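Q: Start with the shorter request: fold the first protein.
A: Done. Sequence, then structure:
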Amino acid sequence: MIPANCAIALFLAAATILLPVPSYASRSESERAYSLGREALNRHAGSEALSLFKKAVAEDDRNVEARYYLGVLYSQNIATYMLAEEQLIEIPGQVMGQGSGNRDDLIFRAGLALGKLYVKRGRNVQAIRLIRNVIAAAPASVQLDDAYNVLGLALYYERVYDEAIFELRRAIKINPGNTAATFNIKTIRTRLEHFNAARIYSRMGDHVGAIEEYRVAISLDPRFIDARYRLGIELLQNGDIADALKELRRAESVSDQYSKKHEIRFGMGLAFRDLGQIEDARKQFEQVIGSKPQFAPAHNELGKLQMVRKDYKAAIQRFAEAIQLDPKDEYATNMQKAIMGDMSQGR
């Protein structure tokens, strides 16, 4: 597999390479196979088209249009995703190496096809970066609605819903007839409808209502990590500690790149604490601080655990750090308790 960062680099700076010039007969045979391949595509004869494009590339390695369609067809089958990536990766360098005039349109199409392939393979972070660069470098002649739709879809799969909606709106503004973008934006709004309803219930203190709405949002999108995390917190606040821990663990497993992963671990620490598993709770809070040292609640919770162990000096240090980061009354109260405990130990 070609690393995604290498693919992106190729599209950002398609290095010039010198290619051997095929014989006239080979070029002629390649063009003939390519033309027949396009005809087969128009007849929806995918397998025939694939064979013809393979032949076109075999006859003339410089036939970049044939290579592009070969990559597109390979990307339609999960078993040939890697072959698709290999073909699409080659195109920028070949276009620049041939010096055959301005072919930014082909580089754009190849980059967009590669971005779509990354989305199919779940490599959404790489897809987002690549498609944004493809859009930035796109020639004025191309229509960008499909690119914005794919970008919105990749953002959606990464659960960056606000940005996804923004990019999908761009696609629809360019082309109101883009049915894929219209469908995608409606899907996101459906997910957010239940998610936002749950947040309203949560602010009202209605944990049961919030739990119900979060569950609906998750049923529509099982990888909706923010909904799973918030469901775990609502279950915890509602006293369903075992179920809360289960949901928080599920949330943690969805993505390593979730920006609020430290909050999931903090919630797991609270659940372990409430289950009486103090050592497990401590480990979670320490992991939170290790990844997010400025997260004051974790310092506070560690201080409270150290109070239970009557390690008042360590508790005082934790509360002091929490107060420095966020001067809440709760942290100050805990600090006073730790100081009094330390004084009583010294008597």
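Q: Next, the second protein, separately.
A: Sequence, then structure:
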Amino acid sequence: MINDQALAEIRGRVLRELLSASERQASVLLLGQGGKTALLREAERTLKKRFFSHYLDLRKVHTPPELFSLQIAGLACAWSLSLEPQSPFDEFLRKHKEKLDPALKEAADLILSELEKVKPDQKRLIQTAFSMLEELAKKHKRFFLALDNADRLLDLDNFPKVGDIFSLLPRNITFLISSSVDALKPRLQGFTTITLEPLTKEETSKLVERLAGKQAQKVVDEIISLSSGNAHVVEVLCSGLKQSKDVKTAFLKELVWRHGRLYQHCDSVYSKAMARARGKSLLHSIMLILSKEDLKLSELARKLYRSAPVTKSLVERLAGLVEKRDKVFIVKDPLLREWLRLSEHWSDSEPEQLEVAR
């Protein structure tokens, strides 16, 4: 497995852009797939040498407002006291709050008190937890907070009393936020957006060599073609080269077998994107149709047995998954497109899947 530093070196231009924006105190949205976590972690490690900074993977954070605010408060407490954060966070706060600065202790007390109510004020809880981060920023003058997989914050849209979670983010913190979901861009007005483009052929070749040593050019070319510049695909394919140089079979195996790493990656990306969409059955049909061929709006409407305006409205719900290019609609992610195209071959059984791959 490639480490963050190695992948960040290969993505050196993006890392420099990320650090340059951050040091101008511009909050950044890093948008895309294939190496965003490595870049975010490496940027945070670099900033930590000179500034107060922390990295937080939001996949590990609860999103119900009560639990979210408690966890953020617990992390603020831990970061303030240079402690390792521990759950349950209510016990952690009770144990350590007396050591906190007065403003932080007051906020911790308010959160613990509010949580004892039958119906806690969810927005107040989150505002108070964020106020603890604001206090840390005041103390350290410059506070960089890297939030990985920030699309998880969209889950808080399910709690109307919270309002717009992004409008509550502290203003005196420089954020480095990563996401694979385009829906974050309009929610983060004022952020500098850096789009993580697919690896170039040269970058893919370098990554193959870092992961698997020198390989025959035919093998490298196959990995370049099948990966479409996705660093995760490159890593998966390189990991199997010791067993077999048959790159295409390995790719298909990983993609259609339900325990394959590429299958699970695509399933996660797709499920996350579709979870927030209305009319899932029709949207899934659109994705399956477009995985097999790129179509104009009128052609897609005919295949769906829907009018063009209705079809256009449905496609708009798939922003981030589908895009219009040269007058036709396409599935944006090449890996996801191939996964959906092979959906009739998805299998729970590895032997069946291997037969398909052959």
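Q: Describe the second briefly.
A: The first helix runs from residue 4 to 10. DSSP finds 17 helices and seven strands in the chain.
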